[in-house]
Amino acid sequence: MSNTAICLLCVRPNKIHIDFFNTILNYKLFMLCDDNSCSTNNTNIEFIKIDDNKCFNSGFKNSNFCVNKNPSAWDKVFYYFSKINKNFDYVWILEDDVFVPNNDAFRNLDNIFHFIFNVIFNNN
User: What is the pLDDT of residue 116?
Assistant: First the structure.
């Protein structure tokens, strides 16, 4: 788990999400803010802000046809973890409307699915 990150996709950080993220241990925590003008201060969470034009012009676009914004937060997270920060073997990516029952959820999922992820998504 030490080489695994968790990234929450949001328009703007929400205090509830920040408070919950601060209870998660043993992961590097990120929040990708689609609104680059939002305020982001926290010591345990790294906030990601990516310029729309930079993402779009780098070819990261159209990954989410369900939203009327291009590039979307999904495009930006793919750009960030494939071009800017390649330091993690695994990254859990979730949207801000996903229910996470407790702060052990990711550890439990890692313990259950780690072998499968290694087989399917190996960094060869």
Answer: 62
